[in-house]
């Protein structure tokens, strides 16, 4: 089953084209990395998928429906997500869970995200990595079919990253699909079933990590795929 289908998606902000005829298909049960430098269009793609912005052109379906019409079936972590600071971790997870038709037990979500010992703390008392785990807990509590994760492991140390991805894979084992945006080459190679390289709002490559890299280092592949776009943009500015 196709969970995400984006065909010819363009999104312009005045003279700036954040997405340029973007094509992307994600099947159920996949973990797909959207890899690209800052300004590649990753966050805009997520906003389109969530129905937060409308594309200028193109066709998009999420779980077979218009974006933004199935909030109970989608969990999301966004870079700009704000959190109320004076509530506790447990209270916030419980509150968000009430908005879903089939929420997971709060204790289970806290355990899965390694937040059980932080359950009574307020958001202001959390470290950067703990706040990221809380955002994951809020994305997971509704038992979503699709997880959209925008730079989800920012501010996490190595141990927290490993724990995070164990929980994400557990969600996939339970039937979820994961699309995550990152500019971390190593993370994309280690975690994803497929890596989609985005630059200048367009897909430059879409393949399993091993097929994408072959005998080359993923950093060399990434630079080769994105350098052409950067050079073209520099030339257009002259």
UniProtKB/TrEMBL annotation:
Molecular function in Gene Ontology: ATP binding; ATP hydrolysis activity
Protein topology in the membrane: Peripheral membrane protein
KW Nucleotide-binding (keyword) present: yes
GO cellular component terms, semicolon-separated: plasma membrane
Protein name as it appears in the record: ABC transporter ATP-binding protein
Top-level division of the source organism's lineage: Bacteria
UniProt xrefs under InterPro entries: AAA+_ATPase, ABC_transporter-like_ATP-bd, ABC_transporter-like_CS, ABC_transporter_ATP-binding, P-loop_NTPase
Location (main, coarse): membrane
Entry-linked PANTHER family: ABC TRANSPORTER ATP-BINDING PROTEIN
Subcellular location(s) per record: Cell membrane
Gene3D superfamilies linked: P-loop containing nucleotide triphosphate hydrolases
This protein's UniProt keywords: Antibiotic resistance, ATP-binding, Nucleotide-binding, Transport
ABC transporter domain: residues covered: 4-225
GO biological process: response to antibiotic
